[in-house]
Amino acid sequence: MAVQPTPSWLRSYAVIFTSLLAGASVVHNILKPDLTIPDLEKLENSSAEEDGSSQQVEMTKPATT
Predict the structure, then answer these.
(1) Are the beta carbons of 57 and 44 closer than 8 angstroms?
(2) How many CB atoms lie under 10 A from the CB of residue 44?
(3) Hey, how many other C-beta atoms are within 10 angstroms of the C-beta on 48?
(4) CA distance 38 to 35
(5) Cα(4)–Cα(42) distance, integer angstroms
(6) What is the per-residue pLDDT across 12-33, written as a single tens digit (0 to 9) for each?
(7) Is the separation of the CB atoms in 55 and 48 below 8 Å?
(8) Ramachandran area for residue 32 (φ above 0: left; ψ -120 to 50: alpha; else beta)
(9) Taking the model in full, what pTM does it have?
């Protein structure tokens, strides 16, 4: 007697994935989060103006091994 794969796993996966996407859609439609990436130069300039300092922040690359 051959064992047949049960479609219940596939159905469960589909239901869980669909509910995950539906939940995210509902939350994003209600809360409407701002998902834009801020411009670093504008943030640095505005924070330097607020502090009264004109310090430059130097960006360095992380060390690779």
Answers:
(1) yes
(2) 13
(3) 14
(4) 9
(5) 60
(6) 999 999 999 999 999 989 998 8
(7) yes
(8) left
(9) 0.43
